[in-house]
Amino acid sequence: MKVVVTGASGFAGGVVVRAAVARGWRVHAFGRRAASGIGAGPFGDLVRAGTVPYRSWDVTADAPGDLPEVDAVIHCAGTVTDWGPAREFARVNVAGTARVRRAFPGVRFVHVSTASVYDPFRPTVMAREHDLPARRYANAYGASKARAERAAGADAIVLRPHAVYGPGDPTLLPRVLGAVRGRRLWAVGDGRQRVSLTSVANLAEACLLAASGPVERGVFNIADAEPVVLDDALRWILRERGIDAEPSYLPAGLVTPVAGVMEVAFRLLRRPSPPRLTRYAAGHLAVERTLDISAARELLGYRPSPTSFHGAAAW
């Protein structure tokens, strides 16, 4: 099996590369990071050994020449943040997806999307794939990823993970740890809400199944084996990290307007970095966010492991 992995210098893409090599596949890795800097990345040892050829490609630009002939493309490249100008999300997530699709015509295309395409303004309760489209989004990220799914084409396999975590996690774990103040970890909601999380290992397995299995198109939710209760997950993370703190909760009705004011202020001041609190972050886990993954189980043969934060002290 010969595959291209885009976004290989990022979190999920790097794990997909390693998983594919472990499966015995021939992998061609592309990422935004310069080739000279990939040695310290998640699969730098494979590049140095000549096992994985790596080329720098920012998907906002044309594809490099002499692209390999492959059986499938696993498209992990994208901007993953809840802050930034809409035009940048469009350039990377929408136009970039279309550009990668055009660069590899006629091959299986696995597009890594997100559960953030579901309606952010109401609870996501065991969402099924047909629950799209949402009428509006809390930020440009969710909107751009919904458009990117269309840019991937009707014959693509689209994967929708939620809250991806694991070793090297640049988003979920840092955000949780950043909410610790003294002996309190501040969160929104009441802590009893159920959430579907996705380990990066489970996501990588789903990518490989989608790239090599009998299913050639379709949309699939991807998550760990079962949802977890938010308070349980937060306490587990704190224990693993050795942090002496307790989760404390604020009502979304109080926090969301404050987040909106902070967003307006940051935009007026043209601050490039995000405010500590955004409406997306406030509402993301404030209510139930669970996914029905039965389609992936039945059609892709997806057999995910349970949510686990064992070893999180080293992440």
From TrEMBL:
Pfam entry (one): Epimerase
Top-rank lineage group of the source organism: Bacteria
Residue ranges of every copy of the NAD-dependent epimerase/dehydratase domain listed in the record: 3-223
Gene3D superfamilies from the UniProt entry: NAD(P)-binding Rossmann-like Domain (3.40.50.720)
InterPro entries: Epimerase_deHydtase, Lipid_A_modif_metabolic_enz, NAD(P)-bd_dom_sf
Protein name (Swiss-Prot/TrEMBL): Nucleoside-diphosphate-sugar epimerase
Originating organism: Sphaerisporangium krabiense
